[in-house]
Model the fold of this input.
Amino acid sequence: MLSQRYISGFKSLRIKLLRTFSSKMPKVATATGNQLKRLRDCMLDTKLVPQPLHAYIVPSADSHGSEYLAECDKRRAFISGFTGSAGTAIITQDHACLWTDGRYFLQATEEMDTHWTLMREGLPTTPKQATWLCQTLSTGSVVGVDPNLLSYNTWMPFKDQLESAGHKLIPVEKNLVDLVWDDKPSVACNPVVPLPLKFSGKSIKDKLTDIRSQMHEKNASLLVLTFLDEIAWFLNMRGSDIEYNPVFFSFVIIGEKEFTIFIDAKKFTPEVEAHLKTEADGEKFHIKDYNQIKTTLKDQLADLQGRVWICQDANYSLSSLVSSKIAVRENTPIQLMKAIKNPVEIQGMRNAHIKDAAALCCYFAWLEKNVSSGQITEISGADKLEQFRGMQEDFRGPSFDTISSVGPHGAIIHYKPTKDSDVPIRSDCIYLCDSGGQYRDGTTDVTRTLHFGTPTDYEKECFTRVLKGQIKLGTSIFPSKIRGNYLDSFARQYLWEVGLDYSHGTGHGIGAYLNVHEGPIEVSWRTTKEDPGLDVGMFISNEPGFYENGSFGIRIEDIVQIVPAQTKHNFNNRGFLTFETVTLVPIQTKMMMVDMLTTAEVEHINGYHQKCRDVVGPLLEKQGHKEAKEWLWRETEPICK
Amino acid sequence: MLSQRYISGFKSLRIKLLRTFSSKMPKVATATGNQLKRLRDCMLDTKLVPQPLHAYIVPSADSHGSEYLAECDKRRAFISGFTGSAGTAIITQDHACLWTDGRYFLQATEEMDTHWTLMREGLPTTPKQATWLCQTLSTGSVVGVDPNLLSYNTWMPFKDQLESAGHKLIPVEKNLVDLVWDDKPSVACNPVVPLPLKFSGKSIKDKLTDIRSQMHEKNASLLVLTFLDEIAWFLNMRGSDIEYNPVFFSFVIIGEKEFTIFIDAKKFTPEVEAHLKTEADGEKFHIKDYNQIKTTLKDQLADLQGRVWICQDANYSLSSLVSSKIAVRENTPIQLMKAIKNPVEIQGMRNAHIKDAAALCCYFAWLEKNVSSGQITEISGADKLEQFRGMQEDFRGPSFDTISSVGPHGAIIHYKPTKDSDVPIRSDCIYLCDSGGQYRDGTTDVTRTLHFGTPTDYEKECFTRVLKGQIKLGTSIFPSKIRGNYLDSFARQYLWEVGLDYSHGTGHGIGAYLNVHEGPIEVSWRTTKEDPGLDVGMFISNEPGFYENGSFGIRIEDIVQIVPAQTKHNFNNRGFLTFETVTLVPIQTKMMMVDMLTTAEVEHINGYHQKCRDVVGPLLEKQGHKEAKEWLWRETEPICK
Done:
């Protein structure tokens, strides 16, 4: 599944296409007048804010920089009525403005009432938020925001820009939206469970040793963890406070001789306590309430020798406690340690992908048999797929909203079928299915594009160009530690040849029974200076695509593991790497224009399909999925030029 | 020829190899004791410096950010004795340190006397200059530097780092090295000549209109030009104040209603005056002395409405006159205008490359015939090549030091034969020749790698892999305005396949009868945020290579023009581009392993060679170069699989 952050440039077709294709009625906008009035009162109430605010910013964020938000954190959706995943609201006494990108222009227009002005991000005529504030506010204005919801790296330039125009940006610790959100969902407090060593592969104590060794290199006496997947990885525990992400609300501070977990006491069950004691194996730790993080950090800073390592993307509320003189504002050491899977995690990831392949074979076989009934829809199909995944060992749920999309819906890159948009899966157009599972041994993410009837030549040509790019990237050999950005054009070249392309990145990191999108690596046109480059033991997606607006979408997505390449030479002792595909689901040969493939590509495809038979076949057999196995054999018949 | 700034990672083999290969004696180090003592006295003399200096920095730079330095600007070489192209000296009362990179470790060791400490840049144990100053100086120290020799973008972080450690960085306008450099060469004051419209393609007045339109967009009332090639381009004039670069020392300030040229009065001949009057066509301009730039800029700033556009890389002395409140610190509009050649420049560039190809055919034919004599050396060969270029119309001189290198010398990426290193060109090893010419209609830069005997299979394999990459990049189709970085892996992939690579970028921009290295575009692993991406009308080099230390070097370099690609589709209306190779010199087929080439590659090579015959053949014929024409025909015999 595509990471939200690297999609760009495509047109806002979602609502328009839904209408055209499903001819459902648009929604009624959410009334926001009352809550906006109350919020504006709060902005002026000096019992609630340090000083009266001329503007209040409501980001889409939680205190942990999470990609997905828990219900209780969807404050921007509540205050504005707009439910899309990306957007920022700014409220003054006279204005209520909502910035969002092209994907959501129509949806926002429909969902927001007349109190709101849509600020179309990405259009040259739309001012950026800070610029708009500078243009709109009288000199000397005060802008407030919950400092838990902006990262340090976002806060600082925003503040600079406001200050250079004579305004102030101030932290307002009491969240004003919460004060006017009467039926706000409570913070999730779902159970936390240990992840046994047979899945994690490395004890807390051993991870601690590695982390402290890196802290030592930076002369850091404290390391503050705020990202939920980093904490879950470090503690070998999993939760379910955020949908699809097996994480739990918490903070951690690691010192030189002890570490402290900040977590709701209700989650600290005897089972968790026993797990921590066993795995910490003599290392000292404390449990404190989730809300004590700031006071504890302040206390620890008071008599500190050495520096404090806190990621530049940690929230400003915590980050600002650490003076820049002693701060190491870099990615935590955990980010890279987590990206490079250990041998147990590698085995688990590979195993999870075999089980996942079995579930997908069952689903596609079932679909092929039943699609002609006309009764299976995008949603009921996705549900069936989840049922098949549920039959697999250690399945814990989907790793993201299944993108089950028919015809033109496939061209909406982040399509998720809703009751309003749901349509039957048909045999006269392309079906794109992007889905993944959370298993205790690994996380999966796979996209296959199928046609249950007869694809057009144009569809086949586009599919084949996407496939050639996917093979080219997947079989490439490259020096160790180069950034994925450097390989992205390999996946696009066959589309470029005829003037085609796709408006999203080609690969994202993936967690081991953790978040389906995981930094710090990626394969895309973007470069980030924090990207450490590709290395052995990392897993990344390989998912080029092509989208014909209003007509169809094609994407082929595998998860690949980075492994050493066996090369004759080794220039400058850099070490050369390649990918090994761990996704084992047939790629529909019906969609291929075999004449466009080289002999090497044909051999690659046949080899891959043979591996699907060899590895997934026995599991299907063992599980008694006879029809799925037959489907697998049919779909993996060798092709020849 | 490779741009200095994007070579990295290769070992310092220059001196070592020279010894091994030519067995000449090392040089004697330059005595610097006297001049260092005098410089240290100057540092403390408050008649010369605003306050006593604890450290003085001597960069390798001029006031214009030039890549090549005039003799009078080689201050760092004078003070330290080290003559390499890259390096920075820092002198305190107790220390004299010279920072340079791995290419020059041995050379610096040999050239510098015992007063100097070599700081080996790039080694993890070597502190960076500012860090070393912070570690070495007592708190409250004063560091001085000539502000004309550091760019604004270099100065600011340097100053921040020193200040955060309690020191000061101060500008010292009087250059202290000049005060102790008794036989300093005088500033070149070579004639300046107009470049007629038939070569420039666009009058000063028309350029001015475009420049002012971009100034207007930025609300800039003044534009300060400090880069010599930008000034030469704007004024349609050429000079020779710096070797190989047809530029002249000058500054320009463009206002809304007039522009001012700061230049030595001796250069302002009646011919230049007439040229300016004609081409300015009524636009008002003034001539002032070169040294009046600062006082004039101050005066103009005094009563200014609007902002001042000055490149972030302009020298600090000038840049600091412009307060950041009104400064537009971005690349000047000229940089991109100059990179996108106009139709006359395009025609000129293509024509220059045809003439250049004729000269190279003459040289290689002559070499092939005479190499067996054993009398032709790297230097005498290069001289002969210059003679052949000199026979071509409008030739003005080489565009850089010819890299004429035999065997292991070819593995030294920036090799230039000297009297000490010069060896005969032989038929038992590879000969790499990277050279270029300045013609009034264009600048050329071409590398060919030849063997006059029988290459080994390994040499042929490496050559063929380099060639395949060069063809792949040269024939690629890509969306308009993507950065060249994005295409770099195309050129490397066939080397990567077997664990090989090269430690330099793949392409640099090139001027039209201007500098052989020209920003802002490039094809390399680096990305710069100022890179505007590739666009129609740009020219860039395509020069992958491979270097086997101690043995041989291979590089194949063409200049390519960016042209629209004829694609069936046009995704998102981006426009798709490709390259057209304008260099027309045969690539030695003897060096190719034909079995490693695809049919398409063989056809491409044969097509290219046919074009060499068709275009260069008639010119050779016309010029009466019979042997060269025969050589051209022999070298362009079609190959077949």
